[in-house]
Design a protein that fits this description.
Distance between the termini of chain B: 35 Å
Largest interface: A-B, 75 and 66 residues
Number of strands of chain A: 0
Oligomer: heterodimer
Helix content of chain A: 55-70%
Structural class of chain A: mainly alpha
Mean pLDDT of chain B: 76
Largest sheet of chain A: none
Order of helices and strands of chain A: HHHHHHHH
Chain lengths: 168, 274
Amino acid sequence: MADDSDISFETLVATYYQPLYKFAYSLTKSPDDAGDLTQQTFLIWAEKGHTLRDPSKAKSWLFTSLYREFLRVHRRSKTVTPVDQEILETRQDSSLIEAARQLEGNEAIEALHELDEVYREPLILFYMENLAYKEIAEILDIPIGTVMSRLARGKSQLKDKLSSKILK
Amino acid sequence: MERQRIVEILETYRPGEGLESDPEVRQALELAAQDPELSQLRRQIEEFDDIFAAKLQQVEAPSGLQEAILAAAGQRNVNVSEAPSPADHNPESRKIIQWFYPASFAAAAAIIILLALSFTYWNPPARPDQSAPALAGVGTGVLETAESLYASLRPSYRPDRGEDVIAYLRSNGGAVPVSLPGGVAFDQSFACDVVEVNGNKVSIICFMAPDNSRTMHLFTFKRSAFPNCKVPAKPAIQKDGKSCCAAWEDPDQDQVHVLYSDKGEQNLRQILDI
C-alpha cells in the first residue's frame, strides 16, 4: 500500500490489528492466543520496525512477524514434509457451495484446521487476507510455485472434507 | 491439456497475479472459456472462494484489543503518534563508513558492481503496469484505511430503502455521496455504516452492481481530512498485490471515494467505465 512511514504507530495499529488478529485466530483457534500474538507483533514492530527498508512492505512485514512469532511460541519446526498428493477433481456442485454458505465463521476455521498444516497456512492467507501470491510466499518463506501447488491441493482437501460432511 | 491440469489451474488462477503470461495458464483459460462444463466449473470455484472467504471474514477482533496494544506499547515508551522510521531514515544507519584501506574499498566496490551487473542481467527489471497508476499517489492514509475496512467489513445497518441509507449516514456524521458509482440507485444498497478511524469518519455503502451480479463497497472519506493526498479527479484503478480498488475525489463535495468490487478489477472498470 502507500508509504507506511508516513503513518503513526497508532494508525498502523488501527489499520492492521483486525486483519492480523484474524490471521492469528485462524492459526491458533484461540481468542486469547490470537490477541497475544497480535499485540506481540505490534510490539516487535515498535522495537524492530525501523529495520524495514521499504516502508510499503509494512503489511507483509507485520504478517511475516506474526507468523514467525506463532512458529516460535508454538515451538514448531518449519521443516515440513508435505504429502505429495495428487489433485483429484473434487466435487464442485451447488450442494458444496450451499454447504459453504451454511458455515459459520468459526466452522470455516474448524474446517481449515482439519487440513494438513502445510495446506492450511497458505489457504488462510489466500482466503482471509486477500494477499498476492508473492506476498504469501514471502510470509511463509516458500517459493511462489509451492504456494500455488499447496493452494490447489489445500482447496481440493477442503472441498473433499466438506463434501464428506454433506454425505454424512 | 489434461482436464485434471485445467482444474488445478482454475483452482489457483486469480486475475491480477500476472499468471496469464504463462502459456499453460492462458491455454487453460481459453479451454475453460470454450467448454460450457469448464466455464461452469470456473464459476463454481469462484463462487465457493467468495463464500468461504466471506465466512472467514466474520471473525472479529475482541473489543478493546486495539486499546490494549496501544497501552502495552505506551508502557514500553513507544511514541504512539510516531512510527519507527524505516532503516533508511534512521540516523544510526547513516554512519559514515571509514575505509582505512583503499585497496579493500576498491575490491569491494568491484565485487558489488559485478554482482549488480549479473543480477540485472539475470533479473531484468519488470515492466511497469501501465494500466494501474501508482498507488502511492493516493496514499497517506486513505487507501490503507479503505483496504483495512474492506478486509474486515461488517456494516452494522441494513436499510430497507435508499433514503434510509442517506438518513443513517447523515445522522451518524458520515459523508453522503451525491450518487453511487455507475448510476446505481441508493435503493440497491443492502448495508451501510459509518466508522471512525483516527478521528476521521468514513461512510461505507455496500450495494449490488446494476446487473445484480456482484457486490460492491464504496468508502467515502472527507477530502479535507487528507490534505496531502494526491487523488485523481476521475476514477482510477489502484493496485497493490492482489488488492485492487478504484479511487477518485469530488472536491465540490469535499469527498474522496474508494470503491471495491468483490469480483475484482474487471468489474470495477466495467461499472466505472474506465
